[in-house]
TrEMBL record:
KW Transport (keyword) present: no
Organism name: Dasyornis broadbenti (rufous bristle-bird)
Name of the protein: Leucine-rich repeat-containing protein 14B
Organismal lineage: Eukaryota, Metazoa, Chordata, Craniata, Vertebrata
Record keyword Repeat present: yes
Family: Belongs to the PRAME family. LRRC14 subfamily.
Amino acid sequence: RTTMKSLRFISAEAFVSNAELARKSLSAVAHDLFPLLFKASYLLEQGEVIHDLVENWPLFDFNMGKLLGATLDYQEDLSHRTCSVCLESCLTGLRDYVLNRTSPYMKKLKVVDLTGIKDVEVQFCKCKKTMGRWARTQLLSKLCSELLVYLQQAECNPGTFEISINVLIDLFVTERNYELVMQALLKKCSCPLKICCVAFRSDNLTLQKFFYIIKLTDPSLLRKLEIVHNVHLEMEHLEMLFSSIHFPLLMSLTLPARTFNVRRFTATDEQMLTDIGVKMGEMTQLTELSMSFSILTGRIQKLLSPLKTPLKMLDVSNCSLNHADMAYLANSFHANHLEALDLSGHDIPELYPSTFSKLLSHCSSVLRSLTLEDCNIQDTHVNMLILGLSSCQKLQEFKFIGNPLSSQALKRLFTFLCELPMLKNVEFPVPRDCYPVGITYPIDDASLCRFDHQKYERVAEELNLILLQANRGDVKASTPLFGSYDAAVQETNNELGAYLIKSFKETLEKFTTSFNKMS
């Protein structure tokens, strides 16, 4: 698919394609042409030109999302291109903007917004090297630290110290880059480039380090907080976090697995859960909540009823919800506003079929994304599912891998899915008849890949043919056996793997020590 370019954009491409000439001529370029030249340079991956454009940026703000998004001159959105060459040139250009010898009075830049960059699975840049969120965090922190060292050692223009640029960024901190980010945040006041954390993700971090760095980020500005893998945050720590730090602008909260476990609850724990609900209720902007793999049986109302703003996104996958929880969700004021819902890991047809249908009917006018993985949906439940989904005319994404459905049932379901006008993405299971007879669900990791791959390919082709015959070639259908793509995990999987091996080794050593003592 080719996107139309205006004559202005074609001229801009021609200008920046000769990097040497473009760099020499920048001083003669009209200020309002800088955004146009930036997008053209980004498309052509002209790193040196990008660097010089940013180093000499003549405008008050530099917003990556807007600069790379759809424009009148070129409709294609480039914000999902996390090209390493382009982004590194951009950030080093920002550092050199501060160090550039031109008069500080000429420097107007006040805000740099890097939050519009989107990390996606498939990259179209020629260099094929990406710079993900973790690497952007690392590089910006490194440049801030280097800048401070340089300013202390060199004889700089006195006006350089008066430069103050807020750099809005989504930080991603793990054990490996913690020290660097922490130092950059500690010295923020002295640095002309001021890191302003809008979203914060933490993986592979001790609780002590997490609590320390979250306070340094200026939580009053935080809109999104993700505490995900290998941060051992339990309920008492969450209560401590909410009691000691206020998050007035927080819109999205993701908690790690096993934050809650009601099976071990005492009377004190019940009160703590109530307090957490009240604290979340004080976050008046909170509309997205993810609490997967916690045990929350019978406690959803206690957590969610204090919220004053209806949730637009709720992930309670594998949370052992009972009928009372589902009844609360179906009748709560959240139901009419849910745009994304994940109920994976619950036996919906067996436990609460009618309550689920009620919940679906209440959110049908706004629901965009529905995830029902490992929900024991069988062939006999397909009619119920079709009935429930038929009113969800705004549905864009439907994920239901891990359900014991036959090829025939999937074909019936796909024939119906063609009728959903907004649908763009479907994740479907390997048909049950592709696995050996007697396979049990949910399928364990060891058996997950032991299916008839040739038969699966034939079925997948037939399902895609159903879409094509209905003129729905715009729908992407796939079977990601080990879950959907996660850019953050993809970028840090080596560190994540090393951490898991270390944890396993430590657990094994503790077990051996205890066993030896018993012997």
